[in-house]
Amino acid sequence: MKLIDGKELAHSLRGEIAAGVAGLKAEKGVTPGLAVILVGDNPASVSYVTAKKRACAEAGMLSREIRLPAETTEEELVARVKELNADPEIHGILVQLPVPKHIRDKAVIDAIAPEKDVDGFTPINVGKMMIGDECFLPCTPHGIIKLIEFSGMDIRGKHAVVIGRSNIVGKPVAALLARKETNATVTLCHTGTPDVGHFTRDADIVVVAAGRPNTLTGDMLKDGAVVIDVGVNRIPDETNPKGFRLVGDADFESCSKVAGAITPVPGGVGPMTITMLLWNTLESARRVAK
């Protein structure tokens, strides 16, 4: 069984990104810029934003962090996004989700200019992804494709099962796997699927993004399958000083005995999400510099 090390792949790709940033600065005098807006003080969101800021610095990118109070109105937030749309120093805009309940995610995402939508969430970029046009691919799904390739699995002609149908991971990763470049046959399972194991036992690749521990167990896998575990769940653990530990959506112990390759949690998909965000920001700056 091979452990698919997301940290190792992310480190390699970030080296390429840093070289690309340095080259763009030298050749065109353009420094890729990423703006991240955080509304409120959700601890997990604060942690993600801090990690993104650090990653930008390591890549030599401009990082602009905008922190707004939880009471910020939807209109105020949309106005800040539109200011960034018009800012020539900023090539990528990300609004950290979730936002407070009184703000609609859709209103904020729709306000981001598609050419600066480095998260790949706007309807225009989602539509372009679906029909195979050039666009910013959503970061976590794009990272998942990279991880499958990194495992040594040739995706073409394989049967891939995706568990979970969220707009952020499940649906887009299913679409990317089915593209002509990857050419997998894709089954999308979800809470309405009566017997998920019926499909996963026939799968060469399983991507599990259900948000629930033990969604995938070893008896649900075909020997040698590649498992990409997107889940991050806290479960009580009295032996840990924090009182909890992080686990994925797959039961690692049983799945690792059957899978040919599997991502750990943490250290699998997580590092790739920020890496692909930097990837998209660099690409956005390159388009502007042409």
Strand-pairing-aware structural class: alpha/beta
Going by CATH, the homologous superfamily of the largest domain would be NAD(P)-binding Rossmann-like Domain
Number of domains as seen in the coordinates:
2
Count of helix runs: 10
- State the low-pLDDT regions, or none: none
Structure in a nutshell:
The protein is built from 10 helices and 11 strands.
What does this structure look like?
By secondary structure, the chain is of the alpha/beta class. The chain has 2 domains: 29-115, Rossmann fold; 139-270, Rossmann fold. Helices cover 41% and strands 17% of the residues. The chain has 10 helices and 11 strands. The chain has helices spanning 6-28, 43-59, 74-85, 105-111, 123-131, 139-150, 170-178, 196-200, 252-256, 270-289; strands at 2-3, 33-39, 62-68, 92-95, 159-163, 185-189, 205-208, 226-229, 233-236, 244-247, 261-262. The strands form 3 sheets. It has a 6-stranded parallel β-sheet. Helix 2 (43-59) links the parallel strand 2 and strand 3. Helix 1 (6-28) packs parallel to helix 10 (270-289) and helix 6 (139-150) packs across helix 10 (270-289). It is globular, with a radius of gyration of 19 Å. 44% of the residues are buried. The mean pLDDT is 96.
